[in-house]
Amino acid sequence: MKYDEKYKGIVDELIEKDFPELKSLRIYVSEANRRVSRKCSGVTYYFIWFSFVKVSRRLRRYTDSEVVSILAHEMGHVLRFESCNFFGKLWKGFMYFTSRKARMVEENACDRIAIDKGYAKGLYKFKFRKRKRKKYSDCYLTADGVREYAKEIGKW
Fold first, then answer.
1. What is the DSSP code string of 66-111?
2. What is the pTM of this model?
3. All residues at 6 or more sequence positions from 68 whose CB lies less than 8 Å from its CB, including other chains
4. Which domain holds residue 84?
5. Alpha-carbon gap, residue 76 to 91, rounded angstroms
6. Distance between CA atoms of 6 and 11, rounded to whole angstroms?
7. Rounded to whole angstroms, how far apart are CA atoms 104 and 35?
8. In total, how many domains does the chain have?
9. I want to staple 107 with a disulfide (CB 3.0 to 4.6 A). Which of 84, 89, 91, 139 is the partner?
């Protein structure tokens, strides 16, 4: 339970500092079960009235800057999702799970949101550490891609 509280505290700080448009939303944060933890570092579930962010138990081994950058990426998902109307949310969810290209667009956009908000170095360290090839790893920016984009916009 102490990790749930830690992650919720980080999300609250992120919202206060960098995602003020999410202040009025109900966002729940907790550690994922073992099955989800093996598959990804973080996942956001959307419901009509709230969002649920699940983070991998592996995050316990990561540095604070890596954890914050991963959660900033997840807040990017919430931000993008909340910008859609009801049918847009349904369409976005459908496309995310049925189209690799849509997933790639979404994940790259959320990486860029985290970088835009100033979390490039933590995201870089996380991605550099996590170089294993997984099923959807090509849908995200690489460590080098994070660094290049951050330098391009002056956030490195």
1. HHHHHHHHHHHHHHHHHTS-HHHHHHHHHHHHH-HHHHHHHHHHHH
2. 0.92
3. 10, 14, 119, 122
4. 2-152
5. 18
6. 9
7. 23
8. 1
9. 139
